[in-house]
Amino acid sequence: MSSFVEGFLRGIGVGSVYALLALGFVIIYKATRVISFAQPALMLAGVVLVSHLAVPLGFWGALPVAALLTALLGLGIERGAVRPMIGRPAFVVAIITLGVDVAIRVVVNIFIGLDVRNVHDPWGLGTLVIGDVHIEHRHIAAFLCAAVLVAGLFAFFRFTRMGLAMRAAADDQEAALAQGVSVGAVFALSWALAGALAAVGGTFAAAGGSFDGTLWLTALVALPVIILGGLDSLPGAVVGGLAVGVAQELVATYQNHTPWLGGNVSVITPYVLMLLVLLVRPYGLFGTREVERV
Amino acid sequence: MLQVRNLEVVYDDVMLVLRGVSLDLPSGAVVALLGANGAGKTTLLRALTGLLDVHDGAVTKGSVTLDGDPIHGLRPAAIVRRGVSQVMEGRRIFGELSVEDNLRVGGHTNAGAVGERLDHVYGLFPVLKDRRRKLAGYLSGGEQQMLAMGRALMAKPRYLLLDEPSLGLAPRLVDQVREIIVEINKSGTAVLLVEQNAAMALSIASHGYVLETGKVVLDKPADRLLADDDVREFYLGLGAADTGAARRSFRDVKHYKRRKRWLS
Ligand SMILES: Nc1ncnc2c1ncn2[C@@H]1O[C@H](COP(=O)(O)OP(=O)(O)OP(=O)(O)O)[C@@H](O)[C@H]1O
Ligand SMILES: [Mg+2]
Description:
heterodimer; A: 12 helices; 72% helix; B: alpha/beta; Rossmann fold; 2 domains; six-stranded mixed β-sheet; four-stranded antiparallel β-sheet; 10 strands; 38% helix; globular; binds adenosine-5'-triphosphate; binds magnesium ion; cell membrane (chain A); ABC_transp_permease (chain A); Branched-chain amino acid ABC transporter permease (chain A); transmembrane helix (chain A); membrane (chain A)
């Protein structure tokens, strides 16, 4: 029983990271109708920034600064590579973001170098023990931090003028323009938000150990998460991220009971879960029907 | 005064849709713009509010000026800020937002006065106040039209452009929309009313234009338009005043009869 609870809580921690990454994808998708494949590079850039900045600034100083810088990087990508492509088929723009992703990761890898790096997080592999359940500090921290960010995001979209404008533009871009909403600002802001979220998510993915250039693969899990949650749904990204994290960690906990499946079934769990959900709900858990037409 | 002079608009670099349109919307006036489907009415409104870009359209000749300043190169947001708002064809409300959030978006360029404008709009459309927490997508067609108008009023426009506000509404609702337009106008806002419902439009307009395949073919005070045989026949469905002839279809007579008359 305690291994189940441990697996579940670990899943919540890991899932919080997925949720942050998936939120970035969904925010960009809603604003621009483009699936950005540049999120892994943004994440890696953010993590590398934290690992360098944490030396002078400390972890808590480095994290917001890195998030801000990654937001600026996202803004730059939007301005330089995505904005000029407005009006082209969404597929073309998606491929362009893929190119941007590769290019940025090449540059970022230079700053990773050959040594293993770490983000100098305060948690390491420390655990909190309740009864016979061990919970890793970094998972608790990931969850709390994600909860704060998600609450902030929802408040932003619900109550602020720009947040409202972003929702309006997602609903009907031309009608939003006609109200005087600057759709360019909406695009830019969506990329900036996604950049910041990727940086924070990546930092928690890297916490507790060392990382190298392959960390970007973590961001790919956000793809089944957003398909599962519904491409255009922010709650879907959160619920989907947590669900995938929990499923993955539970499978990892019990996979040695099923040796014939091999030792790495947990890796494909997100995709299996996505398939299962799509069989029942073709638009994902919270997706809307319209998405299909895009 | 909002002035259009010799405006030419092209879609996709090749399709000439407006051919030398000129039109005046004096401040404080109600002006009607009539025309059959595809005449270019919506295109003209897009040109007035900077929305041609979205449709791969462009102004290739002529000008749109607001109080003498050209505005046809401006972004939509800049035009809204200068006091020109549009209620788009088909209402285009934000269905996934609440009624009140729709209105708040309408006040995007007017952030300081959102509360005051909300009160004003709710005063004009009490039904929106009752429904303000509802998702706009669940409103009835008539309520959605009210919402679209209310949303445009949030920016406190001096010039309001309405694209077929009576479309798809029951007669009683058309009357209501008509009364609201009169009321909006009374508070000082000039209205350009694009309509297929010529009777409604001309009953409140002081001046009217008839657009046909991208050209202004009639440009007269509203009462004289109402008396015009062609307008009576093709837009009011009354039959020409001076002939007892059976009503003919628009297409049959379009070529020879109409053209000649406007030339004379
Ligand atoms: N985005 C576009 N791209 C190309 N052509 C267009 C576009 N929008 C409209 N047109 C064409 O321009 C012409 C005028 O269209 P417009 O929508 O302005 O007419 P309208 O007078 O508003 O008609 P309706 O009464 O049906 O609304 C039509 O022939 C139409 O096919
Ligand atoms: Mg039209």
